[in-house]
Specification:
Chain B: Keywords: DNA damage, DNA recombination, DNA repair, Metal-binding, Zinc, Zinc-finger. The complex is a heterodimer of chains A (about 240) and B (about 200). With about 240 residues, chain A is α+β, with helices and mostly antiparallel strands. Chain A is built from 6 helices and 8 strands; from the N terminus they run βββββαααβββααα. In chain A, a hairpin with a 3-residue loop joins strand 6 and strand 7. Among the domains of chain B are: about 90 residues, Dna Topoisomerase Vi A Subunit, Chain: A, domain 2 (3-Layer(aba) Sandwich); about 30 residues, no CATH class. Chain B is about 45% helix and about 10% strand. In chain B, helix 1 packs across helix 2. The chains are: A alpha+beta (about 240), B alpha/beta (about 200).
């Protein structure tokens, strides 16, 4: 494997794990290299210069060097412009990060997804809208190559707003004669609204959430999202 | 020559300490057995005694030898204030400030959704029960200013507020004696966003 040296790469921290006594493994989402694992030596020492900097949801510029799966973080610089997330937005941020950690393969560049992620976090700072989450999920699927067929049905006919459909994964919507009852049944209007990213109709928004949840569950391939589990537990209290 | 199995077990056991790999564990084991058998005995006794004697305070959840720790039992402290911290070390730091005379609750961790640490693992219901004992007037959230600490503070505050308890959060910003020139940009940015009115 080629030894690489990268300077000043825009990145977000997705997650960190303690490593040895004083180091951290940083799962970062970078603009030009996708998801990379960086070893931040000494980052947990009390006086470390980057302690407190390797914080999720903050735009950074990182430099690294090395080869193999874990690269060595050489430098991290704070970029600013993104208010710290708080409250509910923080939990939604964790949800995005968990999706990226599970679905994004290592070192696979997704510049458009990076931009969508940054934009979503910016929106989160002003309060989370369900629509932001749906938009991000849609661009995530698009970027991973699981793009959704929304404006036409599985047979190639235009989706009708008044019609009832069942979404068949990897094929597209299939017309039903009456409303279906599975998680993947949606109205034609929801499909069209999702295609145009118009979430002004609350019913479309609710159905889009159901549909996205079912799709994510499919692509996560049986993996349970910890963020969702914890969210449920918190609501039970 | 093969190592006796009890020696191997000791080496394996020592490796549970943070920062101790197989080499260091082996060195420690040989040192204890060859040069300091008395020390080894003390270590073993101290450890088994501590394991039996030390438990969590039924009020503040910190480590103690009795059912209720000395601090919680003290009558000199203001029982209407409850400061929530992540770890006993944080509590000690807070004590050193001599700026606070209320009581504590130690969570012994923080919410970390990506690591699967939720309210159940942290037994946040115990904190709720403690804060709702009728005596507490104000809960001060002193969890860390990391994302996890913030997430913890947010949820605890939601839960307590819905039960009609006043909740406050420790302030953050430019450190005492801090010169703007040398403060990190992230702190300064947040200090600007969270600026407050100057009281006359």
């Amino acid at each position: 494997m080629q030894r690489q040296k990268v300077d000043g790469q825009p990145a977000y921290v997705l997650h960190t794990y303690p490593f040895r006594e004083t180091s951290l493994i940083v799962e970062a989402f970078t603009r030009d290299f996708g998801r990379v694992a960086l070893l931040a030596r000494g980052a947990r020492r009390p006086r470390s210069a980057i302690r407190g900097l390797l914080l999720g949801f903050q735009p950074l510029e990182v430099s690294w060097a090395g080869k193999g799966e874990v690269l060595t973080l050489m430098k991290a610089e704070w970029q600013g412009g993104q208010p710290l997330l708080a409250g509910h937005a923080l939990f939604c941020g964790y949800y995005l990060n968990e999706l990226l950690l599970h679905l994004l393969p290592r070192e696979d560049a997704h510049e458009a997804l990076y931009a969508a992620y940054a934009e979503t976090l910016r929106c989160f700072a002003d309060g989370v809208q369900e629509a932001d989450l749906r938009r991000f999920e849609k661009s995530l699927l698009q970027e991973l190559g699981y793009g959704l067929t929304l404006a036409t049905d599985a047979e190639g006919r235009a989706v009708e707003s008044a019609g009832h459909y069942a979404y068949q994964i990897e094929r597209g919507p299939v017309r039903l004669s009456r409303p279906g009852d599975s998680a993947l049944s949606v109205s034609g209007k929801t499909l069209l609204d999702l295609a145009h990213e118009d979430f002004s109709d609350t019913r479309s928004l609710a159905e889009a959430k159901q549909l996205m949840r079912a799709l994510m569950a499919h692509y996560l391939d049986g993996k349970q999202l910890e963020t969702r589990k914890i969210f449920r537990e918190l609501q039970e209290l | 020559m093969s190592t006796p199995s009890s020696l191997e077990e000791l080496i394996e056991a020592l490796r549970c300490l943070p920062g101790i790999g197989p080499k260091s564990a082996q060195r420690m084991a040989y040192h204890l057995l060859q040069r300091d058998r008395k020390g080894a005995r003390r270590l073993a006794d101290g450890m088994s005694h501590a394991l039996e004697a030390i438990r969590h305070c039924s009020r503040c959840n910190t480590f103690t030898e009795s059912d209720v720790c000395e601090r919680c039992a003290s009558t000199k402290r203001d029982a209407s204030l409850l400061c929530v911290v992540e770890t006993p070390v944080d509590m000690n730091m807070m004590e050193q400030t001599q700026a606070y005379n209320g009581l504590y609750y130690v969570i012994m961790g923080r919410l970390s959704p990506l690591d699967g640490v939720g309210p159940r693992e942290l037994q946040l219901d115990r904190l709720l029960a403690r804060a709702c004992d009728g005596e507490v007037q104000e809960v001060i959230l002193a969890t860390n200013y990391t994302n996890e600490g913030e997430a913890t503070a947010h949820y605890v505050s939601e839960l307590l507020r819905s039960r009609g308890i006043k909740v406050t959060r420790i302030a953050r910003g430019v450190p005492v004696g801090g010169e703007l020139e040398y403060v990190d940009a992230g702190t300064l940015a947040q200090a600007m966003r969270e600026r407050k009115n100057v009281e006359a």
